[in-house]
Amino acid sequence: MTALRDAAMKSKAWPFEEARALLKRAEAGAAKKGYVLFETGYGPSGLPHIGTFGEVARTTMIRRAFEVISDIPTRLICFSDDLDGMRKVPENVPQQELLKANIQKPLTSVPDPFGQYDSFGGHNNAMLRRFLDTFGFEYEFYSATEFYKSGAFDDTLRLAAERYDGIMAIMLASLREERQQTYSCFLPIHPETGRVLYVPMKEVNAKDGTITFDDEDGREWTLPVTGGNVKLQWKPDFGARWAALGVDFEMYGKDHSTNTPIYDGICEVLGGRKPNHFSYELFLDFEGQKISKSKGNGLTIDEWLTYAASESLSYFMYQKPKTAKRLWWDVIPKAVDEYHQQLRAYPSQDIDAQVNNPVWHIHSGNVPESKMVVSFGMLLNLASVAGAKDAAGLWGFIKKYAPDASPEANPDLDAAAGHALAYFNDKIAPSRVYRLPSDKERAAILDLRGRLVAYEGAADDEALQNICYAVGKEHEFEPLRDWFKALYEVLMGASEGPRFGGFIALYGVAETVALIDRALAGELCA
Fold it and tell me: pLDDT tens-digit profile of 387-442?
């Protein structure tokens, strides 16, 4: 453990860098409560998306890194802002009219359009917990509705009434003049309609802990700020929650980063100590736009898991969190293969390199062995020519390539074979376009065919790749990648793929010759 801790204290992996900063905070007195508290927030206005998973996964990586360098206990709270009013109807859920009729009501007061839970907020909270549980995260779930209504937030809300002017000074400095005229950090929940009201305050009574306001019909109301009668606007709520819970660390997207001074300031006005925070870059869809829960324009957890194992998703989340990344279907194969490359490298690394390897953070130091003797990219190419209906249909080829492999001994490879078939059928086959070769390409492909017919060696990736290289060079393809691009376009209907020699070794020399014959006869184009 000493060697691991020593390596962790000098590691440049971002989870350890954040953990060391937290240790300094804890040693400066932040851990007097007996533990270090991590928090992630979830806005259940739409179905949980992959970015929500990313926050919890990345926060957990920092938490586990902290536990290596410190013996101070830790907690992780996943906080759902489910008392927020539903300000717009998500586009990707059923019963749109039902939801429109409940606009501006707290999400836990809006009926569940799926008919499964007591509210829309309850449904989305259950979705969040389901996929967090699926991944084995250790966390405590907090509902804002329960937090406000149970009285757990009452002391902080009374203090907010007492220090209303201080909170408002921070908020008003960030608002346009027009918005300043009507803004209040308190949002009353109408006693009759149940709607969250965005109305100015006529009075904030610090002594009684009440607010007075006119509703939209001009009627005056006075409500206590406690007991779930009133909620805080989202920016003050952020900072107030930090103060109330004693949060030590929270990460959020770059779109929140300009609000960080507001969150911090309100936390301090309410007697708290601002937490350490980490701002990550946003995920982008296929058009380079920010993914959105309400638009549903990103991948979901279930969609990723249809085509790859969960560890590949964790790998994707680990990589360069401060760099914007496309989160679309085509990132999945690359993530799978890079994850297994790191797994294979791990056993031969010294401890300093291991704590910098992404798989240490994905598996909290308990790193498994990779049994993927065939890459995911290669499986996709095999799926394109094998005509297999299920994973078992690919195993005949795999067994010839790797005789010692089996579904039982290589469960990750067996799962990947099934995932590759699903990915090929759903994402590649519909857009596959074969073409006939040019005269130059036809001559080179015929030359390759002849050399394969004459080949008598073992099904060796490197030897077969050298044959492919030699043909491309002798037929003067410049750059050489144009030769391999032609092979994939003519034989597989795609413009790229893994090493072609490896594909021949996996698919079979005789089978590749037959594939060439079909392509040159125009059968694949037909």
Answer: 888 999 999 999 999 999 999 999 999 999 999 999 999 999 998 999 999 999 99
Residue by residue, DSSP assigns 367-393 as PPPP---S-HHHHHHHHHHH--SSHHH
- Give the C-alpha separation, 273 to 278, whole Å: 16
- Per the CB < 8 A criterion, the answer to whether 109 and 194 are in contact is yes
- Alpha helices in 273-432, H assignment, sequence order: 301-307, 310-318, 331-345, 351-354, 358-362, 376-386, 391-401, 411-423
In DSSP terms, which residues pair with 36 in a beta bridge?
74
**CATH for 2-174+233-283, among 3.40.50.2000, 3.40.190.10, 3.40.605.10, 3.40.50.620?**
3.40.50.620
Are 125 and 141 in contact by the 8 Å Cβ rule? The answer is: yes
Whole-prediction pTM value? 0.91
Instruction: Give CA–CA dist 164/203, Å, rounded.
Output: 11
What CATH number should be reported for the domain whose range is 439-520? Answer: 1.10.10.350
Q: Give the domain ranges of the chain.
A: 2-174+233-283, 376-431, 439-520
